[in-house]
Amino acid sequence: xxxxxxxxxxxxxxxxxxxxxxxxxxxxxxxxxxxxxxxxxxxxxxxxxxxxxxxxxxxxxxxxxxxxxxxxxxxxxxxxxxxxxxxxxxxxxxxxxxxxxxxxxxxxxxxxxxxxxxxxxxxxxxxxxxxxxxxxxxxxxxxxxxxxxxxxxxxxxxxxxxxxxxxxxxxxxxxxxxxxxxxxxxxxxxxxxxxxxxxxxxxxxxxxxxxxxxxxxxxxxxxxxxxxxxxxxxxxxxxxxxxxxxxxxxxxxxxxxxxxxxxxxxxxxxxxxxxxxxxxxxxxxxxxxxxxxxxxxxxxxxxxxxxxxxxxxxxxxxxxxxxxxxxxxxxxxxxxxxxxxxxxxxxxxxxxxxxxxxxxxxxxxxxxxxxxxxxxxxxxxxxxxxxxxxxxxxxxxxxxxxxxxxxxxxxxxxxxxxxxxxxxxxxxxxxxxxxxxxxxxxxxxxxxxxxxxxxxxxxxxxxxxxxxxxxxxxxxxxxxxxxxxxxxxxxxxxxxxxxxxxxxxxxxxxxxxxxxxxxxxxxxxxxxxxxxxxxxxxx
Length: 539
Prior knowledge:
539 residues; mainly alpha; Sodium/glucose cotransporter; 2 domains; 22 helices
């Protein structure tokens, strides 16, 4: 890998000065109440909402990992990257219910729809899951990327990015997060687009690249009997995980709740969905380009995850290399900033305010800032453990989403679509669902010591995509069964919170929140998704 030169460092320095300038401008604005600190005063426009959704989704481990999937014969993973249509579901289906309820957090929505038990379970579980997976994985992958790009040691890279991100997240709150993320999204898209164009030119165009890696390599649809990616359960499970991640996870939904109104929020999700189509071309294709150049003996890297940094350092000219390096740092920082802010929002609004309901607004903001600092410190403490985890366990962390998603997706989906679903059904499904998910992870880790003919080995050894699909069906049956055998929810628990109970006034309000342009762009996005699915079929 070529090291960064003076011109690259100048570009990186300018980027960080602009970033800190935005953060400082935001910090000077008042942050006296929780709505301003956690939801940017609910006064953000669609462009910033959409860019923030995209930037918080694309972390440095995401960029590097997606290019690694392109370089390492894991093209079926592409299905997780063409979920722009699921982002549309957030805007068209879920957001109106969230906006009507006036909530800050997803657990708070569950309390309005069901009861406080569901809120407590989702709050605590979400915070633990964020710290153990999102924060630690992002910091670890970020440290690797920063040390490789800047030629510094892992700890210096990891600590400096965490501390810098922590400072502007603590001081600026959600407003600092969404505005800095807008800049980061723009930088990352421009940098990666230039790399893709230069890379395709270097390999002689798409046809030449396809001939080198063979058309079969570019097939995202494997047979139903494929041991790793059987297409039916890949399609089902990616949708379940997609609905959980894009439509019910605090980390993403919080961005839409910052919007001025439903109209701006929905347009933000449509813009976010449009941006979500880009990773396929901006991050996955560079991985295939890197593989092509390696097969031709023009590039050298040891593991697929090194494909993106090596390609970038070898192909891009001075200055541009610094810009894309800044984009990768931006991706790391935006992911961290998002998860830091989401954790502090969940702790302050769903736990602290619940225990001390009369706390003044200023003290709640201070509590949120302290919670962010604690999460930053825990994340740093967790790095040495992450650094010692084997590659196998790192993969477990990736598949953990497939075990977290089914119960939460079932509770939110059926809670909104079926007014007969009650608090008891939601509570039982969340508790049993989390226990089953945790049990599956344990079985996966210890399966080597189990009887190969026993049921426990079979459950632990089952393909994670297949397990998740059956697990979701189990959660759906469980929540319906428990709800129908216990008493109906009270009228105030369903009014305007489920389909079939929306008042005429709210229906009219919703109708005025979109026009033919919103519908047309949404349809266009769906057509592009179908087109990408058909294009990557190996023929």
